[in-house]
Amino acid sequence: MPLRLFDIAVLCFLIVGRYSCNAADDSTWIIKAGDPTTSVFTGRIVAELPSGAVLLEERNGKLHQIPARQIQSRADAKEAFVPFTSAELAVDLLSQVPAGFEITETEHYIVCSNSAAEYVEFSGRLLEVVFDQYFHFMTEQKIAVTQPARKLPIVIFASAPEFEAFASKQHPEISFEDTPGYFSVSDNQTLLLDLTGDRSIRFAATIRRRLAEKPLQVATVVHETVHQLAFNSGLQVRMADNPLWLSEGLAMYFETGSSRSSLLWSRPGLVNPRHQPAFLKLLDDSQISGDLNSLIESDATFLNAAETPAAYAKAWALTHYLIREEKTGMQKYLLSLSQRKPMVGLTAEQRTQEFQNAFGKLPDEMERELVSYIRRQRVSR
Description:
5-stranded mixed sheet, alpha+beta, 43% helix
């Protein structure tokens, strides 16, 4: 599986200001904007900067960042903003994909797919287990989150060409070759590739056997689902300045699968079989000491292909350590993240101070304890 450069790209956003922004407006607005062609956007205004830039949410959950210079006109539609019902969202999803896709609803998800029904059923059960474990984990950690008021959209593609074609339209600036899935913050959709590549599968046992051969891809399904849950439960704010070390670290904390489970995944917190060895190798190569603070100061290491593997290993280690050994600090830190504002960026100094306020010290000052903790962990077999 390739490095999650695609993951990073869809989690990043355009910071258009460093000022306070207005609160969300539950009225429906019609905004006409153009550059170079004119488009009309209808929805609620989630945030507005003093510069006039607007973040607008459509009824299907899609967000649009509209710079002030592009706004030609705006008008109050004189009606309340009401998100799509499940039935409306299903119709909207079908309108975005080619012919041959069908809708399957689970308790918390609307799955749009052209894969075999058995694969969709298997995926739906996995999604629901992740959903339950996510909220169970947050309750155990005493972290305040709220279950989504509406079902979340999932799109599963039977083949890689179909997946890549759709993804390239959604995010044309990113290459999705050899990518098994991603979560789009702007569209609020989790896009997944049928990891069996076989529409003819009719038995759950066959699906499990095929997926057991691809543990990293199964991990991606869980990883991206956790991103979607984080952004739809109040833990993180879409289009806010969410630090990538925490976004990715939390998803990696959940992603590790279990060969003993019927769904090949059971619970969060298992030691990651890729990132723990990678972190230990960084230690052996003297690439950790005095370098952890940079992880929280900016997202730069995640955006540099040469540094990305190390960034992921460090983010996994730091997140795993903080969740297990600094529970109170993590509660404070996640609370501060949940209060961030869309389209408002933080400086390196502000990020550092925020971490310091929550944990009482910086990552470099935790290095000795963190390293000792990671060395003691054992990968489950």
